Amino acid sequence: MTIFVFSIKKLISMVSNKNELSFISKIILSVFIILSLFLLVLLYRSYNRIYRPNVILKGAETAYIYIPTGSTLEDVINILYENNYIINRNSFEWLAEKKNYRIHVFPGRYKISNNMSNNKLLDLLRSGKQEPVKLVFNNIRTKEQLAGKISKQIEADSVSIMRLLNDPIFTEKYDLTTKTISSIFIPNTYEFWWNTSAEKFIEKMHREYETFWNENRLSKAKTLNLTKEDVITIASIVDEETIKNDEMDDIAGVYINRLRKRMPLQADPTIKFAIGDFTVKRILKVHLETDSPYNTYKFYGLPPGPISIPSIDAIDAVLNYDQHDYLYFCAKADFSGYHSFAKTLEQHNINARAYQRALNKERIYK
Fold it and tell me: 37 pLDDT exceeds 90?
């Protein structure tokens, strides 16, 4: 009887323990499921913060952002936000801190794409792999115009560029003066990093200038007994004299003939440069009295430097000038843009009077 009672109690105890174990197991399983779901939610949120598209360009596929030299994380954030490029700002700032972008901000021009994720955007900005700028300049007359045009394409401002171009100590290191420094700028398309400084810009342009003056061009300049700067100075006058490329070599030939005969160049564009007004259509006697080393009516030889930044066509026209006996030329009276050439002053005066009558007829007096 005692043994039977003990067996019953033991059985009841075992059943009770099993129920307790089952209950504990259910609690553990429930906690595990809850934690797993919580972890999944965290992972999903983190994934979205990192990899979900977070850049919107409003219909465009690509855009460029410009990060100035010395920018901080906050500056970059402001650039992105001012352009409304970021959808979820909190996620971008969170990942920027996680990826330690604060100490990896590089200046430059960066190409971003529509629907980029925070991760791709930050990896690009952290890498410093910016897109180069296709820098273009042509039809430039003054250093001020050049500085203004360049400053719109790279980070260097016009004031810093002008300061160097007008600094005799700086220009001397290139064996040039503040009057001839503009010779190094050959109109073309060049590749630059957007965050190029004024000094680096001029340094690279000088390298391009040296490349432009290859052995062939240098040989031709030597044959003419002219320096590179002399050639460019003549070319700058030729460029201002005509818009017709097919007569540039003829006009260049006139100026070279006059130099060889030790005659004043008497180039009207140099007068316009001297008085600071290229809009003048008629050179008057009062203009010819201007006291300036650029007044080629008053002073023999070439002016101190180029009066503009000439085209490559004009430079090559000087180097390949047409060998003729003309000493004079004058704009044609038909306003075609071409010129009448003359070997004698008598013939030139006839051509000049015809052009003056045409100006009078059109009521062009200055």
Answer: no
Average pLDDT over all residues of the chain? 90
Q: Which fold has domain 62-127?
A: Dna Ligase; domain 1 (3.30.1490)
Pull the structure tokens for residue 231.
Answer: 């050639």
Rounded CA gap, 77 and 125, in Å?
12
Question: Residue 31, Cβ neighbours under 10 Å: how many?
Answer: 10
Instruction: Report whether 71 contacts 105 (CB < 8 A).
Output: yes
| Burial degree of 362 (CB within 10 A; 0-12, 13-18, 19+) | exposed
Query: How confident is the model over 171-200, as pLDDT tens digits?
Result: 999 999 999 999 999 999 999 999 999 999
DSSP-based three-state secondary structure for 327:
coil
The neighbouring-strand residues paired with 328 are: 342
Question: 333-340: which pairs have CB atoms within 8 A and are 24 or more residues apart?
Answer: 333/357, 333/358, 334/358, 335/362, 337/242, 337/243, 337/244, 338/242, 338/244, 338/247, 339/241, 339/242, 339/247, 339/250, 339/251
* Cα gap 78→74, rounded to integer Å: 6
Which regions of 47-205 does DSSP assign to beta strands (E)?
62-67, 108-113, 133-137, 188-192
Q: What is the pLDDT of residues 223-270, one digit of tens each?
A: 999 999 999 999 999 999 999 999 999 999 999 999 999 999 999 999
Q: Hey, is 6 helix, strand or coil? A: helix
Parse the chain into domains and list their residue ranges: 62-127, 133-212, 215-361
The residue length of the chain stands at 366
Helix (H, G, I), strand (E, B) or coil at 155: coil
Backbone φ and ψ of 325, nearest 5°: -110, 10
Of 86, 125, 92, which is closest to residue 109 (Cα–Cα)? 125
> How many Å apart are CA 345 and CA 327, to the nearest integer?
8
Q: Which residue has the higher pLDDT, 51 or 154?
A: 154
* Contacts (Cβ under 8 Å, ≥6 apart) of 240: 269, 272, 278, 307, 308
